[in-house]
Amino acid sequence: MLKTRLTGVMPHAVRLTLAAALLAAGSVAASAADTLKIAHVYDKTGPLEAYAKQSSTGLMLGLEYLTGGTLEVAGKKLQVIEKDTQGKPDVGKAMLAEAFGDDDADIAVGPVSSGVALAMLPVAQEFGKVLVVEPAVADSITGANWNRFVFRTGRNSSQDAIANAVALGKPGVKIATLAQDYAFGRDGVAAFRDALKSTGAEIVHEEYVPTDTKDFTASGQRVFDALKDQKGDRIVFVIWAGGNNPIGKLKAMAPERLDIKLASGGNILPAMAAYKDIPGMEGATYYYYEIPKNPMNDWLITEHQKRFNSPPDFFTAGGFAAASAIVTALKASKGKADGETLIKTMEGMSFDTPKGTMQFRKEDHQALQEMYHFRIRAKDDVAWGIPDLVRVLKVEDMAVPVLNKR
Predict the structure, then answer these.
(1) Of 122, 163, 232, 326, which residue has the fewest beta carbons closer than 10 angstroms?
(2) What is the C-alpha separation between 76 and 78, in angstroms, rounded?
């Protein structure tokens, strides 16, 4: 087993060195006809910056691995253009328009924030170019707000919710949710509520708080009060992205005195440091580097440890998956990157990722993929709670609904 230690997000200077090298390699003198431009429009600054850095590193490592270090597909060089959304929907929309219009990008990837992603979707349709959404998760991205130029390699809220419902839902279980008050949190809770119906578990209270909340005393007390007089097993389920994750603060309020358990899905390693104090906690996750067993993930682990002295994290795998989808599509299209050609190529397309094989569902372009039911274990020399695999949740184990209006 790879020796691990928490280093937080990879050093910024090191990440920039890698990115600069790859960007330079993709920018060698070549005519426009010999270059394919990929715009990474993502939240480089703002509250989701930690996730964004991982996504960028994963994308770059993926392009390196999948092209054998050449950054070339079908005889054309890949050039990556980075745009910062700042985590703001209006900026994200403008940056994607700039990438497609002024920079003549062929395809785009991003962003992290679901709110930003929703603002960007119409731009892809306006320009008739493909946007690969990674890692924003709100169901509405491939649901009510979807258009045919949108593909998503990241998991959606329904996949998260169904996986966690399978892991936690049992007859008689009572659950209170605590989530952020925007598309990510509300879509996540709605999907979780629907997914629990077939398990016999029930949500008895929903608590929503602003994304910048730091004091969870009042909201924590409300979820505990909603559960304390319920019969049966009682769980507080947290859906959270970015900083100020409330799991540790809820744990400090001693829910065990009320015989209430805490639960949450997977997260980046720094956020999972709080999980170490909750051994036995169960949930479902999109990725943890020690779980998938395949050559691509082995390479990612080895190279990431070598270059950054840390294992690859949650969103590093996501960025890598986006790179795989793009390279696989461009190889199949023989380098043709217009929107209509890529749509025809990518609908139903399977592609390898560090998690294993994913496939874009034809109906809504959502990538169907495995998830992982985990149980947290604490280990003295590992700074985070280790999500030991309970079982792999295969695509056929999760009836992920088609939510668009196609």
Answers:
(1) 232
(2) 7
- For 170, how many CA atoms within 13 A lie in the half-sphere containing its CB? 7
Domain around 192? 159-285+374-397
For 256-273, how does the pLDDT look when each residue is reduced to its tens digit (9 = 90+)?
999 999 999 999 999 999
Query: Are 16 and 128 members of one domain?
Result: yes
How far, in Å, are 154, 345, 365, 406 from residue 362 at the CA level?
Answer: 16, 11, 5, 11
The mean pLDDT value of the chain amounts to: 92
Residue 7 lies in a domain: no
**Got the DSSP string for 59-111?**
HHHHHHHHTTTS-EETTEEEEEEEEE-TT-HHHHHHHHHHHHHTS--SEEE--
Distances 294 to 112, 185, 281, 316, 329 between C-alpha atoms, Å: 26, 32, 27, 16, 21
Residue 403 domain flag: no
Which residue type does 51 have?
Answer: Y
Tokens matching residue 277? 């104090």
Spans of the chain below 50 pLDDT: 1-16, 25-30
Q: How far apart are CA 345 and CA 373, in angstroms?
A: 32
Q: Which residues pair with 392 in a beta bridge?
A: 372
Residue 165 sits in the same domain as residue 242: yes
Looking at the fold, whether 234 and 212 belong to one and the same domain comes out as yes
Cα 55 from Cα 313, distance rounded (Å): 9
Report the pLDDT value the prediction gives residue 21, as an integer from 0 to 100: 55
Whether 343 and 306 map to the same domain: the answer is yes
Residue 24 lies in a domain: yes
> How far apart (Å, rounded) are the C-alpha atoms in residues 405 and 105?
28
Please state the domain count of the chain.
Answer: 2
Residue tagged 């169901």 (tokens): 139
Contact 218/253 with Cβ under 8 angstroms?
A: no
3-class secondary-structure state, position 150? strand
CA atoms of 256 and 15, how far apart (whole Å) = 41
- The helix or strand, by DSSP H or E, that contains position 321, with its residue range, turns out to be helix 314-332
Report the CATH number that the domain containing residue 146 is assigned in CATH.
3.40.50.2300
